[in-house]
Structure formats: C-alpha cells, structure tokens
Amino acid sequence: MTQALNWDLPDPFTMTITVRPEDTDRLGHANNVVYVRWLEEVSWQHIDSLGMTWALHEETGKAMAITRTELDYLASANAGDELVLGTWLTDWDGRFRSARQFQLIRPADGKTLLRALSTHACVDMKSQRPARAPKAFAEILGGALVAGGRGLPG
C-alpha cells in the first residue's frame, strides 16, 4: 500500500490509523491533539524498530526529548477515515540533536492531510538536562538518516 502513496521522501516508516469517533472534535474532524499523539506513537514505533528500545534508554539513562514540533494541517480527517502516517529521521548532529519529518496521507483519495517536523535533544533521564547522546544512539540515529528532508534549524 505505501508504494502507491505519494511520499515526500523515500521508504517511510509507516503506521496505519483508523480515525475513531472519540478522536474527533466539535467540528467533526480529528482534533489537533490527536495528531500530536499519532506523531509520538509513530516516532516510538520507528526508533523501537531500529533497536533504540526503551530498555536501551533505561540502560543508558538517556532519551531524546522533543524540543519543538511544527505541524501544517492541510486537510481534515473524519471518523472512519483510514490513514497512513509516515516518518523519517532527517537530521542528526552526531552529538545532541535530531530532526524527524512526518507526512499523513489518506489512501482513499491520496491526499496529504498533514506535514510535520519535530526536533529532539538528548537528555539525561534523571536530571532532565541536556546530555551527549550515548554511542548506541549515535549509531542508530546516524544509520537511519534519510537525505533530502528538512533538518535542524540553523
């Protein structure tokens, strides 16, 4: 199914979504808070699939915390819609910061409903302060980069 979709970048990691009635707001479409939850869910699934599991986070005492999320809502999703959310790691400075790009498509009509970018910084899980990423994170993030996407702000 993902091959037929018009992705912004090649080979996204994808998650399928069915919009539930409880995901909608008073306007009858998926609420903006739900989109953010979906971005978080696909991000965790992606890094877990790469080997950056929660066990590795606990072992190293480090985690990548979101520092900024930018969302462009392009069209609405309604209850019952089947969607595919794709994500890519698009930047990694090799030490502290990374960027991740997202695209949400409704396969029924091929429409892109949302594009988003999040940036992340490595933090010590106890102190919550910035910390250099462990070697394992650096290898995983560096190895998963997709060229051509939006990166970290200058």
From TrEMBL:
<dbReference type="Pfam" id="PF13279">
    <property type="entry name" value="4HBT_2"/>
</dbReference>
<dbReference type="InterPro" id="IPR029069">
    <property type="entry name" value="HotDog_dom_sf"/>
</dbReference>
<dbReference type="GO" id="GO:0047617">
    <property type="term" value="F:fatty acyl-CoA hydrolase activity"/>
</dbReference>
<dbReference type="InterPro" id="IPR050563">
    <property type="entry name" value="4-hydroxybenzoyl-CoA_TE"/>
</dbReference>
<keyword id="KW-0378">Hydrolase</keyword>
<protein>
    <submittedName>
        <fullName>Thioesterase</fullName>
    </submittedName>
</protein>
